[in-house]
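Appendix B. Chain record.
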Amino acid sequence: MSSGFNEHTGENVERHHSRCLFCTLGCGFDLATLRGEVAGLEYAGDSEVNRGALCSKGNYIPGLIDHPFRLTEPVTGDSPVSWSRALEDVADRFRSHSSAVIIDGTASLEDIETARLFTRRCLGSDMFAVHVPTGDDAVVEALYRSGVSRLSIPRSRIEEARCILAIGDPFDIGPIVAGSVLAARYRSHDTMFAVVSDGPNRTSPYASVRLQGDVRQILADIIRALYVLPVIREKAPKWADLLGNTVAEPENVQYHQIASSLTANEPVIVLETQDPVVAGLAGVIAMLTATDAQVCYIGSYGNIGDIVTRIERTRTVNDVFDAIESGEVTALLSLGADLVTGCSYRDVPSLLKKLDVFVAGSPFENDTTRLAGTILPTALWCEVDGTCFGGLLEAAVEPPGGALSCGEILNRLVSRMGTVLPADESEYRLEAAEMTPERVRELLDTAGEPFISPAVRSSAVRFADGSLSGRASFATYAERGPV
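Structure tokens predicted for this chain:
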């Protein structure tokens, strides 16, 4: 934190550094505060990721903190109540029901781990799930299963690359990466920038090579084009041997053009997808072409890499829904998640109405909070201390009104339920897996199958209100199909 002088008011203005969690790039920024309230946004020029630049999501953070939909006090029924009364009522009701907890993927690692322990120790249940409606968690897991453990690439390396393979539409989800990619693209006339996508998008107009169609099949054909090159076959690991037994090499000359460029340079792969198979195939390409396999993954949830690798998740949101439908779960605590919009592939309102107890914590009014018997106002990530992007982020500003972090809400419930949580029970750590012939065969076999996209797709515009629910007051967004 640093301080400055406001010449208009004669008061000290404090600057608090933070990082944006609206995508996996983790752009840095400073919030200026005056008397504890947000006075403005200042660009952090020393941030290696974005060097001061921010997309519409990042630029909207001050408006997000003071958003008109922010919730600032607990509500039971239609009446505001004190935190003490709200939590006492929640604790009493959860004691006598079979319960589950869902927490949103925007929470810090500490808050998510607290939710896991609370579910197990206080509720005696294993019905705990992390809500990531865009499917980022499945994509990250697929990358780790394919041997890729580093999901970010330094900006300097991107800018110096002679070959960049972009998959999907990374300029849409993380526009800041466009600057680095285009710096490399136009630094040299022989730099290849290839885009693989299902059709034209915000990234493809800048490409030197465009491959559009079935993204899974295109990547599988690039892998086959790679394997026929002697330089790949000579150094390829044993798991790659089965590639010689797959269908004939592709006829499209562009596949061979991309393959040759990938092998002649240390390539950079920039990935935006909701499809775990596409992620796995991208991982195979990275493992075949780079001595240090890395993929610059552009997803919607900034902390997803840490969540997947550090939090033991044995249940999914669908598992919880199934348990509600069967009557196994009769009480649900949902923190930060807009389940109605994020899980529109199921009749979530009907499921929530089956519950005897439904408590929703959220920073914003949304379609889920309207169905809750008790609503708890929660803080945003920039309003609490917590681990994100592998390091500790300090609160840049206090949450408005009586809003609390998810972890603080849970700890107060623990106290009321007469339980003590251990400081840290989990030693869970997901390591990158060794690639195997079976994994490669699974990916190539699945490449011919259709992909069913998650219900929610992010965008630099769509979620600028921070709700991750599509109810953006910041701008009107025209829906488009998934990549």
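Further analysis of this model is presented in Appendix C.
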